Amino acid sequence: MDLGFGEIAMLLVLGVVMFGPEKIPPLARKAARVVHFLRGIANDAQNQLRSELGPEYADLELRDLNPRVFVKKHLLGSLQEDLDDIKTDLEGIKDDLAAEGRDLKEIENAIRNTEGAIERTEDAMDETVGNYWTSAPFDVEAT
């Protein structure tokens, strides 16, 4: 559970409104004692569990008992390196594809600019040729 700055500030304001500013320090001390006491109980339980399970579970953490973590650590442990390698390779491919996409955009822009230049050149040629043929005298009966 992550608490951001805004949430902590809201809790402080709510605490001041509910209990008053004079009761906040004693309540904070009591809350700290409760947290310290609960951490002590959790550490004692963890140490007792380690000692009863034996040396093969010396690296046991309480979060390892979560089924998701247990499966990931014990069943997927050997596969995790392969999965990490595949993930790294896929990220590299993703970066390569992004670079190719940027290159294709540049090529597309260059083609559009070239097409525009060709159209302008064709228009200029049409005007030049059109002016030449319309300005030259032509007598149909002369031949």
Written description of the protein model:
With 143 residues, the protein is mainly α. The protein contains four helices and no strands. The protein has helices at residues 5-19, 24-53, 67-75, 77-135. The longest helix is centred in the C-terminal third of the chain and has 59 residues, at 77-135. The protein is elongated and about 120 Å long. The mean pLDDT is 81.
The span between the termini is: 99 Å
- Could you give the count of β-strands? 0
Total helical segments: 4
Which class best fits the helix and strand makeup? mainly alpha
Question: How much beta, percentage-wise?
Answer: under 5%
Form type? elongated
Mean pLDDT: 81
User: Helix and strand string, N-terminal first?
Assistant: HHHH
Q: Which stretches are low in confidence, meaning pLDDT under 50 for 5 or more residues running?
A: none
From the structure provided, what is the oligomeric state, counting identical versus distinct chains? single chain
Helix percent reads: over 70%
Largest sheet composition: none
Provide the gyration radius in Å: 39 Å
